[in-house]
Amino acid sequence: MATEPGAESRADRKERTRRAILDAALALAADSSLVAVSLRQVARQVGVVPTAFYRHFGSLEALGLALVDESFRSLRSMLLDVWRHAPEYRDFIDGSLPIVAQHVRDDRAHYAFIARERVAGPPRVRQAIRHEIELITRELSTDIARSGAAGQYSSADIRLLADLVVSFVVTTAERLVEDPAAEARTLDEARTQLRMLLVGAVNWRSRED
């Protein structure tokens, strides 16, 4: 039997409820952490019975891991955007920071989630965040090596450079999340820090084994 025009399918309803659960968890954890949120709170916020929660997530921890995956899609997209727009050191300073600020403005809830849960979240959620950051660092290491932007670096040092860049971007995003009103000052200070970092990077020469 064909679905009536305008009627919502069962799959659409399920996805809408799943989205509502994710959004509710983000909102409830905003002032503390997922460890302080209960399944009943999330269900009440969405307007479903607790048993309906389990049709979408096996536990609050599973919900947290889904939020990690979703949040890191945003972070990975931002870092890729930064690198594509500023593949060389001289472009990186002025090209990267406006992109970071715009991404944080557009998706503040997810960046706030990463900042908060990587230090205060449930153990498996913290572990998943560390793992995602490690994956991004490896991806950036590969991109740097392929671009030839660090031809004077050993493989080990390229990895360290990628780790510095990723850590810098994550920290800057966290500062932007914590104090939106101070965005101009945060970006100005980050620009100076990035100059310091890249002056060292440009002049670094890896020692031969």
Automatic annotation (TrEMBL):
Alphabetical list of PROSITE patterns matching this protein: HTH_TETR_2
The organism's place on the tree of life at top rank: Bacteria
Pfam families, A to Z: TetR_C_46, TetR_N
Leader peptide range in chain numbering: none
Chain residues forming the annotated DNA-binding region: 38-57
Matching Gene3D superfamilies: Homeodomain-like (1.10.10.60), Tetracycline Repressor, domain 2 (1.10.357.10)
Keywords: DNA-binding, Transcription, Transcription regulation
Protein name stated in the entry: TetR family transcriptional regulator
All copies of domain HTH tetR-type, residue ranges: 15-75
Coiled-coil region(s): none
